[in-house]
Specification:
The chain is mainly alpha-helical. The chain is built from nine helices and no strands. Helix content is 69%, strand content 0%. Helix 3 packs across helix 8. The longest helix has 33 residues.
Length: 255
Amino acid sequence: MTATQDAPPISPDITVKPVNKRARSAPFPISLYQTAVGKKWVMAITGIMFLGFVFAHMFGNLKMYLGPEEYNAYAAGLRTMLHPILPNNFALWVLRLGLIGAFALHLHCAYSLTMMNKRARPTRYQSKRDYIAANFASQTMRWSGIWLLLFIIFHLANLTFGKVAISGPGFQEGDVYANVVNTFNQPLISAIYILSMLALGVHLFHGAWSIFQSLGINNPRYNAARKYFAIGFTVIVVGANISFPIAVLAGVVGN
């Protein structure tokens, strides 16, 4: 008798379930973003965007030293970018919304990577000293990031929308020079601004240093250049930004 004949018949009460096919993976950009490598790339790319923004913002604000006409002309140029092709303020708001989106992605990546690191950390065998060393940079970036987020909200409410903390005649639409001078004439506001620039310096230095590592450019031959770039970029941006409130308080710049 053959093996087929010996096999017991299949009972009609038994239901044979079909084998489930593997769930479809997410499209390429999303599937990459779901990985730690993808999140590091997004953090690096958005970080490069922020480096470009803070440098351009600092460079434009240097026009304050050229007087109210030059500074206000620079501000008006931002509002009229690509005019008459686009309406006034349209291109500026596209840039703002792009930066807000990049900032949201940056925050989400930072939070997600922190959670991934916590789940993967072998805490049972990790010494307290190693734990402190490994987390100093991330803790510093976290708190400086929170400070900067609050400062950005205040900065927009202060000098973009004119809702808070401008002394003298108050917010003057279109007169950016007067608004900046009247703001920095208040020592408390200048102190907040200077502290915020120091927080920015911590964030910039660590970010400029780690961007290359996140992109996979991590060769000992280039580490010294990475360090010098991070130091130089931070000193230039933070130094120039801190000079603005100091110049106003010292009377070098005024109405």
